[in-house]
Amino acid sequence: MSAPFDVQGAWALDDRVALRPESFGALAYHFGTRRLSFLKHPQLVRVVEVLAEHERAADALRAAGVGADREAAITRALATLADTGMIVPRTAVMA
To answer: Cystine design at 94: which of 12, 15, 77, 78 (Cβ 3.0–4.6 Å)?
Structure first.
């Protein structure tokens, strides 16, 4: 378990995670835990890719064009990624 996800916080993809684009979205592989996650929507992939470029995860959602109709689902997916350590609070990004 990692830090609880807060959409108002600064997040980034853990440095030990690699994303591989797929037709459905992407595969995320964590080299530290050897966990594999399926990012099942291209918009979720875009959010994850731009998380580190924004002060808050909420800003990354908007930058990726997430509309009100998808925001809850994408936020739940980000919470799952945080819970499994795929994304981490910006201050905790591994070097």
So the answer is: 15
